[in-house]
Every structure is written in C-alpha cells, then in structure tokens.
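Why does residue order matter? Because the sequence determines the fold. Keep that principle in mind as you read this record.
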Amino acid sequence: MIFKYDVLSKIILEDKKVEINDGSYIKKIPGLNGVEYVSTKNDYRDYFVFIEVDDQQIAILSADNHTELGFELLLAPKSEYFVGVNTNNNSLDYYDGPGSQNDFPDVIESEDLPQIYHDYHAASDDELKTTKLYKNVDTCVSKYLQIRPELESTINILMIRLSILIQKAREIKKSETK
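Structure:
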C-alpha cells in the first residue's frame, strides 16, 4: 500500500488515523507536522516529520524505535515522496530517489534517551534551545548541512522531539509489561 506525500499531508491536516490492516496504522504525530507508522504486531514505530522547503520540495526527518540507526534527513520532491507498507509483514519502504540524504546515526545515543525524556519531555522549544543537548545536536547538524539557520534550528528541535517520542513509546511499553 502506497501513501504519497499528498495523502500523508491529508492525514496530518485532518488528524486522521488510517488503519492499514489488523496489525498496523498510520496517524498524525501530535504537535508535529508528521506521521507515525505503528506496527502493533512488532511494536515498531516509524516517525516521518515533514519540513516545507519550498513549493516543490520537502525535507523529511525520520527515525524509529526499533533499529537504533538514528535519524535520516531526506530532501525530496513533494510530488515523488511516498511511504510504502508491505501489508503481508508490516514492513516499510519509502522514497529513495533523487534528492539529498544525510544520516545522523550518533547525534543522540540510544542509551541517553531515558535521561533526555526525563529532563526534556515537558520543555518548550525555547527551553530546548538553551540546553547542552541542543548545542550538541546543532554542532552535528551544522557540520554536515549547509542550510538556512532557521531550517537548521527546526531540524535540531525535531531531532530532540523525535528522541522524546521514541523514549515515550519505550516507557509506555515498559509500563504495559509490568
């Protein structure tokens, strides 16, 4: 099943949850311009946050709660971007065509997530910008990207917010298994 960017945008705009099958769905990420793919069978969560670059292009920041590969930032044409779901095994595929891609595997370490969640889950964006964590993310992002400062700041905040979401999902799972 293919979800093109225009369909994903509609899910965000209308704050819909789209059931794919009895084991998976896509829904809006609360408070962010993005979607979360959830496979309940595997307890996998994949996050895709969209940043408008211009009328033709978007930047997509993605991460998940199951591979510990960090973050991926992709610049892609809006008209070509998609997320594909293999409904047989609830696995994902997504656009990897023309555009630029940057991987940030170590910008925020998995073992740091519990402390990050504890310290920053209720912080505002302005509060996050004053932290050592933000400065560390900014150092990494600015080293590899040559982009507008406001876009860089947005990416930094979104990496922290996605880290918090990943840990929140882990906290919920941990509390459900007790």
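The two ends are 35 Å apart (CA to CA).
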